[in-house]
Design a protein that fits this description.
Blueprint lengths: L5 E10 L8 H5 L4 E10 L12 E2 L3 H6 L3 H10 L4 H10 L3 E5 L1 H6 L1 H7 L3 E4 L8 H4 L2 H12 L2 E4 L2 H10 L6 E3 L20 E6 L8 H13 L4 E6 L7 H14 L8 E5 L3 H9 L3 E3 L16 H9 L2 E5 L4 H4 L7 E3 L4 H13 L4 H15 L2 H19 L1
Parallel strand pairs: 1-2, 1-4, 2-3, 4-5, 5-6, 6-7, 8-9, 8-11, 9-10, 11-12, 12-13
Helix pairs in contact: 10-11, 10-15, 13-16
Length: 392
Amino acid sequence: MPATPIRVLHSVSTYLNLSENWIYPQIIRVPAVQSRVLCSSATNLNDFPIAGGPIVNPPTWEAWFGIPRTVNALSRRLGLGGSALRMRIRRWRPAMIHAHFGMRGFECLDLKESLDIPLVTSFYGYDAWMLPQTDPVWLSRYERLFAEGDAFLVEGPAMCKRLIDLGCPREKIRIHRIGVDLEALPFEPSPISSQLQIVMVGRFVEKKGFVDGLRACLAARLRGVDLKVTVIGDHGVNDRAGCQIKESLFKLASETGLSGRVAFTGFLSMGKTRKTVREHQILLCPSKHAVNGDAEGGSPVVLTEAMAQGLICIGTQHCDIPEVIVNGETGYLCEEGDISGMTEVLCTLAQRPGHAMSLVRQGRKHIETYFSLTTQLQKLGQIYSSLIGEAA
């Protein structure tokens, strides 16, 4: 007889933002696991269908009436307005909770205690880097989370060190890479012709380093490199900092040398993003630490996907990007903010286009070995099993 599936309750703030699509396979594709989702709001359900639909629990006490967080937390602990929800969850009989982002892990502590089941929390980026700096109350909240939570998942050694610095015991941290679907990402490298086709992908936030990247493209262009650039992404609603980044990018794109050579697509669906990326030869990923502390959690998923598809990847020594780009073997790495370094790489690619083809072949092999979605989801299932076994 087949083994009884492990029932995992996934907890996210919003199920599910398009920019967090890499969470979806963890919910629906882990072998021998049956999942439900607990969230505060739901969107994009046609893109991310799930059996039974998400369990939506809006933050009524705080959001509707402006009650302070401390009172809201007390109301949850006393069961005010939450008993029906907990009864619904209890009837489903989850074996464990998987919270996505550190904030959600903290919010699940009372539910973990009520159900008496393990809690695993995945940290992804701003929850570990920016939030403790901009809102120090999270330092004490994470202290409780690290004490009471059972395990914490990170993408690589850089994020592992960050959690240790925040006070998380090393023995509770497990490195779990975000895999990519290799069947959906055929290896189709485009040999470099006389014109470099460059793409950058992401939200207009400082940590993405897009202004640095476009400045490098401008510098390479002024040194005679023939190139075109596509920028996929935009800023969020009412995002003043994002608007300023967009203005800087548009100004650079109008400079002599780049004028008429930069295309801005805005946000695209996941399918259109993959298709557009595939039409280019080079992915430029100039990520860096932002002034407010924000950073990539590990490395951008779009970087892993681009390497799998056969693009030449240029990145920075930022967070866990070096886990994907092995400098000189699977791509090129520069220091954060090193515009001249990125410029040199672009000039070298234009002068020696054939040299890059061996890198893209090694890049695909690297992704197949370490970032296969199938392999990573199997490992996630093993993590669930081991935590349940330890709890028992």
